[in-house]
């Protein structure tokens, strides 16, 4: 090999050697730079302290953790009931791992989230007072007190208010008995007992506090007895229950349109929350029943069908019931904003899961109702004086 050839060969060999050395140095250096950037971004994403080269763990304090509560039902009735229950959801822990071909230590950043404990709801104990007893209008409110139940209750539901078949509003001021045949599809049409509600004068022997209703008092009857019961038990809340097995016939018609829902809800609040009862026999009048009731119980038996013979129903009942409850919640809250009070809204649920699926959007009741009452043993809501244990 000549001198020129040997020189050229030497240059080629030296170039190849230098190139190899550059690759051997540049690859690890570039890999290390990339790994450092990835770890830095990962820390920024999980808001964790800077990690040491060895595996590190960072914890988020309970106060920083998110928790959501969901209201659930607690049953009530002779009638069944339920209490609200809260459920906390914990965020899942996140982990970021970076590995490289060169000997860069594995870095794992773990965030542990501890949920805040959910508050335990108070126990809810609900009793029903029937509008009519075996003798037309009996002192069932007094029975709650003398039987020792009133002091154990948190809520009393007065059952039932009816729906006017003509105006599709809350029916008030009517004294008309039910049709005697329970299989009559029109059994509850136009029925009511305003005499038992607020017109009947209780004697001293019948009255809760031993004081007879004055003949000229605008409020007497069961409504006045409820006011006396609440005065004796200041924490007790009372609700008017609308519907029931016999009076649910027209709920589907009431709930079908937005205008119908607004009209119906306003009429119920006017009569039972604002207390504007029709005048009759020297009783009633604007504001005469104010303060008797603290809220509304919607007892539609049943949306989607399978209720009393003759009940109206629609495939849209399930959705329309939610819309009706939404309207109740809106109007109750608007009134509460003016009076500085929170008015209660509850709903009665069937025990049959198929009927629940057909008529109730349970997931949408959260935030609308304060609690729900659940049918017990297949029985309907009113069985006089029934109490949820």
TrEMBL record:
Catalytic function, reaction form: Random endo-hydrolysis of N-acetyl-beta-D-glucosaminide (1->4)-beta-linkages in chitin and chitodextrins
Residues covered by the GH18 domain: 123-389
EC number of this enzyme: 3.2.1.14
InterPro entries: Chitinase_II/V-like_cat (IPR011583), GH (IPR017853), Glyco_hydro18_cat (IPR001223), Glyco_hydro_18_chit_AS (IPR001579), Glycosyl_Hydrlase_18 (IPR050314)
Entry superkingdom: Bacteria
GO MF entries: hydrolase activity
PROSITE patterns: GH18_1, GH18_2
Keyword field: Glycosidase, Hydrolase
Pfam families, sorted: Glyco_hydro_18 (PF00704)
Keyword Zinc in annotation: no
Family to which this protein belongs: Belongs to the glycosyl hydrolase 18 family.
Record-given protein name: chitinase
Organism of origin: Microbispora maris
């Amino acid at each position: 090999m000549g001198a020129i050839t040997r020189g050229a060969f030497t240059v080629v060999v030296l170039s190849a050697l230098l190139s190899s050395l550059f690759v051997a140095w540049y690859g690890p250096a570039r890999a290390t730079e990339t790994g450092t950037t990835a770890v830095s971004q990962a820390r920024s994403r999980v808001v964790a302290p800077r990690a040491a080269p060895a595996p590190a763990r960072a914890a988020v304090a309970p106060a920083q953790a998110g928790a959501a509560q969901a209201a659930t039902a607690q049953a009530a009735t002779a009638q069944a009931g339920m209490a609200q229950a809260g459920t906390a959801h914990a965020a899942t822990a996140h982990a970021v791992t970076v590995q490289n071909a060169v000997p860069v230590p594995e870095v794992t950043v773990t965030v542990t989230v501890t949920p805040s404990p959910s508050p335990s709801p108070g126990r809810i104990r609900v009793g029903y007072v029937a509008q009519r007893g075996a003798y037309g209008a009996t002192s069932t409110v007094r029975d709650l007190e003398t039987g020792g139940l009133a002091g154990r209750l948190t809520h009393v539901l007065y059952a039932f208010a009816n729906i006017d078949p003509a105006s599709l509003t809350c029916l008030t001021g009517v004294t008309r008995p039910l049709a005697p045949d329970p299989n009559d599809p029109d059994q509850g049409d136009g029925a009511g007992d305003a005499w038992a509600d607020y017109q009947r004068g209780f004697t001293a022997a019948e009255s809760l506090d031993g004081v007879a209703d004055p003949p000229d008092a605008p409020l007497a009857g069961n409504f006045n007895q409820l006011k006396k019961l609440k005065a004796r038990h200041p924490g007790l809340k009372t609700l008017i229950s609308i519907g029931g097995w016999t009076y649910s016939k027209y709920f589907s018609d009431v709930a079908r349109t937005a205008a119908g829902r607004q009209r119906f809800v306003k009429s119920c609040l006017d009569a039972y929350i604002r207390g504007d009862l029709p005048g009759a026999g020297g009783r009633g009048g604007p504001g005469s029943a104010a303060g008797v009731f603290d809220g509304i119980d919607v007892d539609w038996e049943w949306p989607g069908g399978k209720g009393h013979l003759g009940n109206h129903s629609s495939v849209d009942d399930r959705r329309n019931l939610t819309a009706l409850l939404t309207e109740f919640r809106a109007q109750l809250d608007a009134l509460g904003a003016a009076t500085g009070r929170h008015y209660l809204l509850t709903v009665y649920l069937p025990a049959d899961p198929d009927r629940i699926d057909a008529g109730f959007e349970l997931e949408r009741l959260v935030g609308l109702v304060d609690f729900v009452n659940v049918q017990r043993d297949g029985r309907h809501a009113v069985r006089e004086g029934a109490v949820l244990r």
